[in-house]
Design goal:
Blueprint (H helix, E strand, L loop, with lengths): L6 H8 L11 E4 L9 E2 L12 E3 L16 E2 L19 E4 L9 E3 L8 E3 L3 E4 L7 H10 L1 H5 L13 H5 L2 E4 L2 H25 L1
Parallel strand pairs: 3-7
Antiparallel strand pairs: 1-9, 2-8, 3-4, 5-6, 5-8
Length: about 200
């Protein structure tokens, strides 16, 4: 699978390329490999119990992973305001986008809770096209977490990671089969590390 870009796009990227990549790879802006606009969710209205959950920043754990038990219920009266594309899906990457201490944190959606779930206004959702392996894009963004943490704008306690900042991130793109191979190798290493850690505990 190859990628094609207009001359203008290549010109815009060329001045920002951070390092060399193999000839079979290419660079692209994150926004160009997503099927959903990169933006934060809506400011939610809550109720004690409902049919839909709200994914907040605290659901994206500092130690890694996702904890849906920390989600609250969305008020059913505002459901008509949500398009089907706004619901979080398996394969999405979520980025905490406001607040010192949590801004820039990157998580990956590997499973979903019992109820449908939408992001709140402090979380940005990344959903890639079929020419990308979602977990590969997550790994690239996760490697940039320290960079994202420093890209917040605004006052100390109200810093925001603007969608435009995330949209402009450069992603090094290998062919799809190489993306999958990279993901497989890293997941294997992750499993080995966990086995070692468990044996030492």
């Amino acid at each position: 699978m190859t990628f094609t870009f207009s001359d203008q796009t290549l010109t815009n990227i060329s001045g920002d390329i951070p390092f060399d990549i193999p000839e079979t790879w290419c660079w692209s802006r994150l926004s160009s490999i997503c099927i959903k606009e990169i933006k934060r969710g809506k400011a939610p209205k809550y109720q004690e119990k409902s049919s839909t959950l709200v994914f907040a920043q605290k659901c994206n754990l500092k130690k890694g992973g996702i904890d849906y038990s920390l989600a609250k219920y969305l008020d059913n009266s505002v459901l008509p305001k949500y398009d089907v594309s706004e619901y979080i899906r398996i394969g999405d990457t979520v980025i905490n986008s406001t607040g010192t201490g949590t801004l820039g944190r990157v998580g990956f959606i590997e499973s979903l809770p019992e109820h449908p779930i939408v992001p709140d206004s402090h979380v940005t959702t990344i959903r890639t096209t079929e020419i990308m392996e979602p977990y590969y894009v997550y790994l690239v963004l996760k490697s940039l977490q320290s960079y994202l943490e420093k890209r917040g704008e605004g006052s100390t306690n109200q810093k925001e990671l603007k969608p435009m900042t995330i949209q402009s991130i450069l992603i090094p793109n290998p062919p799809l089969n190489e993306q999958k191979c990279i993901c497989s190798r890293l997941q294997h290493c992750k499993a080995m590390i966990k086995t070692i850690e468990d044996s030492l505990s």
